[in-house]
Amino acid sequence: MFAKDIGIDLGTANVLIHVKGKGIVLDEPAVVAIDKQSNKVLAVGEEASKMVGRTPGNIVAIRPMRDGVIADFDVTEAMLRHFINKLKVKGFLSKPRILICCPTNITSVEQKAIQDAAEKSGGKKIYLEEEPKVAAIGAGMDIFQPSGNMVIDIGGGTTDVAVLSMGDIVTSESIKAAGDMFDNDIIQAIKRKHKLHIGERTAETIKKSIATVFRGSRKEEMDIRGRDMVSGLPRTITINSEEIREALNESIEMIVQSAKNVLERTPPELSADIIDRGIFLTGGGALMHGIDQLLAEELKVPVFVSDNPLSCVAVGTGILLDNISKSGRY
Ligand SMILES: Nc1ncnc2c1ncn2[C@@H]1O[C@H](COP(=O)(O)OP(=O)(O)OP(=O)(O)O)[C@@H](O)[C@H]1O
Predict the structure, then answer these.
(1) Mind listing the pLDDT tens digit for each residue in 182-228?
(2) Residue 103 Cβ contacting ligand 1 at under 6 Å
(3) What's residue 14's pLDDT?
(4) Is the complex ipTM higher than 0.95?
(5) Which of 82, 90, 120, 193 could form a disulfide with 44 if both were Cys (CB 3.0 to 4.6 A apart)?
């Protein structure tokens, strides 16, 4: 075993781990399956994710960090420890420095608890960082210069909008309109319109396969299955991109509004830089069809989807660990 710096993107939907010199070595859903009677952890990550919505009564598959807050701390700790131990088995770790990016909304008590869990798992020195900052670094922005950079990180539980300069956040906002809310919007709309009950996985598949947020930019159809709310029997219906766009409209409008709020609070010199450089989108929600077009039209600034938006934070942890002295915070 050898010491390596490791970076962890402790997201509400996915956990990614970056090891210095190796790149991303772990990428799994932030899900834990638990036996309700004994409180024992039965499975973590990929394996637990397969159980979501399909567990018998005594087993629950939960996402401990859902909504960008730590809903269940013990389970979050168990999950973090499981993933770090998995690296140990692979022979990666011996007293590494660990940089963890966690949701922006967590309390200082929760931050301390995450730090403790990482220490107990063998970390020599633990650093915590804010997600939008690391996402911007991972998207290739040089946030350490005295100029304005804007990032919108659309994750599972939260969307973080931030303007950064000289290595720090100048203005920011964090809202709950993000991937999970989009899935729920789709579930509710299909209930209302088609009287059909669908699960979270189906909603996510719809979101990825036929959804769009920009009117007229995608015209696709898809057959979906669910449970008829009246007869209780399985039923198949056909849905299209436009009805999903309508379902997502309110949540997307919240993201647009949040970006406008942050821009309004941005000092004019930094605003000028943002017009020149554009806004970068990171996080899985950046892959929503048409989101760049819509934001560019609403904000009157160029908008770019970063390369590999799902792994920006993990890549950013690697870059930040390499330049830790630059950050000045450690
Ligand atoms: N192709 C796609 N189109 C739309 N959404 C997608 C796509 N791929 C992934 N997503 C969504 O991205 C979200 C997960 O993104 P990500 O892994 O960046 O979140 P996270 O970092 O775990 O969450 P948070 O930033 O809230 O802590 C999920 O809601 C997922 O459904």
Answers:
(1) 999 999 999 999 999 999 989 999 999 999 999 999 999 999 999 99
(2) yes
(3) 94
(4) yes
(5) 82
pTM: 0.93
Task: Please give the Cα distance from 151 to 266 (Å, whole number).
Answer: 13
Q: Is the distance from the beta carbon of residue 208 to the nearest atom of ligand 1 less than 6 Å?
A: yes
Residue 157 burial (CB < 10 Å; 0-12/13-18/19+)?
Answer: buried
Residues placed in the known binding site:
12-14, 156-158, 204-207, 284-287
What is the C-alpha to C-alpha distance for residues 199 and 196, in angstroms, rounded to an integer? 10
- Provide φ and ψ at 80, rounded to 5°: -60, -45
For the Cβ of 174 lying below 6 angstroms from any atom of ligand 1, the answer is no
For residue 190, which amino acid is it? Answer: I
Q: Is residue 284 over pLDDT 60?
A: yes
Q: pLDDT of 76-131, one tens digit each?
A: 888 988 898 888 766 666 778 899 998 777 788 888 888 888 888 778 889 999 89
Pocket test for ligand 1, best of 173, 209, 287 (most atoms within 8 A of CB): 287
- The dotted CATH code for 145-305 is 3.30.420.40
Class of the CATH-defined domain 6-29+66-133+313-327: alpha beta
